[in-house]
Known about the structure:
By secondary structure, this protein is of the alpha/beta class. The chain is built from 13 helices and twelve strands. Strand 11, helix 12 (324-332) and strand 12 form a beta-alpha-beta unit. The longest helix is centred in the middle third of the chain and has 19 residues, at 176-194. The radius of gyration is 22 Å and the shape is globular.
Amino acid sequence: MAELLMAEKTKANPKKAKKSNDKATQNEASKNGAGKNGAGKKSTRMTSVAFVESPLQFLSALESHEPTEDLLIRARASAKGMTSFLDAFDPAWLPKNVRLERDGAKPGLLRKTTFDRIYLGDACSGQVHKALALAYLERRMPEVVILDDGLATYSAIEILTAKRGPLVRPRQKLKASRAVMAAHVADRLRGLATVGKLRWHTALPVAKPLRKAFLKSGGEITRHRFEHLQTLPTGGSHPRDNPVIGSSLAADGLIDAFAYRAWVDDIIDTHGSITYYPHRRETDEFLADLGRDERVRIKNLGLPIELRLINLPADSTIRSLPSTAAVSLAVLNPDVTIDVTEIPAKWWTGASPDSLRKSLNAQSVKADDDS
């Protein structure tokens, strides 16, 4: 593993690698001003970076930010749906002491800056793995906080609670070199858990077995309820009658596309006109066909649905298949009915593992108070 990563590191940085021990790390922090204020006294402020690749990860980073923390959010603008989201997001909505850069995870940033904490939006991202592996090949990794990345977060947490195995998304097949790097990063994060430096900050419900397993590994779980998000003036004035949350499951080939369309049509036939909020991975062809029904109003908003469907009237009903959006909207709108349709067995195409099917249909599980 070390030889593979050193080869990658040499390719990325032809200069001779220097060994870095704790003393060197402290010297670098002093040189950059970390840990001291202008009067030479120790500072309680933290310097952190968040690597995010989706709107939900971005919002989760904002919710994780602490008042005494200087946070740099590095958003991977090339990820699907991110450019339109970043264009629509008002920089004035950022909390104080939070900066945004439209770039992803890069080892150079981690080499030249000593961060006290790293937030990971997608723990299975190849770009993130490369940045962490190369930047911390010979250095101790700081505290790492896992952010919500949709229901795929459950899979990443399960991998980290296991004794071995690479951080890989369900159904994802990696080349040998990537698999080695994914396994290396997973082991490093498991090592952080044993010394109390791995945390999961989440708004998702956490089933008791998963919670116990993660805590037993040494990890910590902290929770939020989108407190910052609820302060933003993002509700908008567009019509929001009969909102239906679009799903990526058909577009990703996990469920039958005809069955999914029939589900949407049944909602329309039963409840009348709907406002349909597409998932960022739904195809233009599907949306164009759906839009031919005059009873359907399609809203491509750029901003995620969590930013638009806040403070709905108490008698509202949001309809959805199992999704992270349904969970987060239940948190944001406690007096609103969230009607989640469990996915019938005959809808599945066989392209997803049993564990994913079970976790999706079990997503309504309530979080334990202890978590």
